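Hi support team,

I'm opening this ticket because the web form for multi-chain structure prediction keeps timing out on my end. I have pasted the exact lines I submitted so you can reproduce it. The total is 428 residues across four entries, so I didn't expect it to be a heavy job. Is there a limit I'm missing, or should I split the entries? Thanks in advance, R.K.
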Amino acid sequence: MGELPLTLEGEGRQRILAAAEKLFSDKAFDAVSMNAIALQAGISKANIYHYFPNKDALYLAVLRAASRNLQKLLNDAVDAHGTVVEVLRHFARCHLQALLDRPELVRLVWREILEKGAPRAREFAEQGFADVFSALVAVLESGQARGELRADFAPALVATLMLGANVFFFQSRDILRHYPAVGFADDPAGYDAGIVEILLRGLIPESSADTVRA
Amino acid sequence: MGELPLTLEGEGRQRILAAAEKLFSDKAFDAVSMNAIALQAGISKANIYHYFPNKDALYLAVLRAASRNLQKLLNDAVDAHGTVVEVLRHFARCHLQALLDRPELVRLVWREILEKGAPRAREFAEQGFADVFSALVAVLESGQARGELRADFAPALVATLMLGANVFFFQSRDILRHYPAVGFADDPAGYDAGIVEILLRGLIPESSADTVRA
DNA sequence: GTCTATATGTCGATAGAC
DNA sequence: GTCTATCGACATATAGAC
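Hello R.K., no limit was hit. The queue was backed up. Here is the completed structure from your submission:
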């Protein structure tokens, strides 16, 4: 009804995305009706179809918006720091913080990955986190090229390990909190400092690795 | 109907658990009716209530059964190997294999963690994976006490990192597969070998860590 | 606003093992 | 004869259709 008559170009689109993000975070894809999204956004259903061709496209748009956030985080980290090690430390902390700041959004993404199997995952991989992942891999590779990091590991593997450590922490926090041995459940910064420290000590070229071999 | 008249003590209970596991893996808790479970198990609904007081208890029983599997894996690893490093290597590999062998079960567990927030997570933490997690922490602690592992890290943190690396690999496989830099999506053994290697080089006391400090 | 469908959980009866 | 696994039918709450 008679809201502010803003003619800002992306305003309507933005409202729809926000509404869709909220509803898709709460319930599964099939359980969210376009009508409900329109209601949440305070607009008409037909209006949604003005901006997005169908429900699927809207859904993917929400996912894409989420990944752009991460991309920006990594770019900022690269710009702000000199050494690769510093970039990694900074990015890990910011990444986890980003997850914790918008838990609904993360749950939305992971529901997508867990529920539907391969079909949607492919689209998501291409449109979504591919850029972030590749960028992180590139950072690690440049670290290897510069000699800052050991050259005998697969960069993609370490990228997986880093992202995974944060995602797992985010996902399991409520459970970990109940274990007496866990002191970091409410200290994400401390957690990240710890895991990055462990990772780095394994990544720097100077460490003597011969004694590990059994 | 005229099935085999087995009077094996836990036979009926087992059938119910298997049916519940399958259905809960496919759909969410609320979307699975006791009737459907009874149908899947080939018995009557009333019969389920003979073994389990209510739907909640049945659900928790399924989760508990899943965690007992992991517990056994770790115990076997501890019994079969001498050094802590060998135990960790072996457990990591078996753990990931266990996840990949029963993907439906893993999805069930993670749906539980992601969907419902704190309330169920607590019960699950107490009844479910607490034992496994604590046992893994104990292994790491004994490694520290024996001098096999560095003493300046939190064992629970490394346990989280290890379990998380496997869980994240399992969860993201379909997506990782599409990234050109990832060569390990279809090689879980190689993945685990890689991440354990990275972790260990960071955990052994001999590595020189001073150069990391910025 | 009523009606229908479906959900959880209960009750009393039955059939067979020992 | 008792005990236990099992069943069909029932009570009750609730969500959605129209």
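A quick check on our side: Residues 5, 7, 30, 33-35, 45-46, 49, 54-55 of chain B lie near DNA strand C (CB under 10 Å from a C1'). Let us know if the file doesn't open in your viewer.
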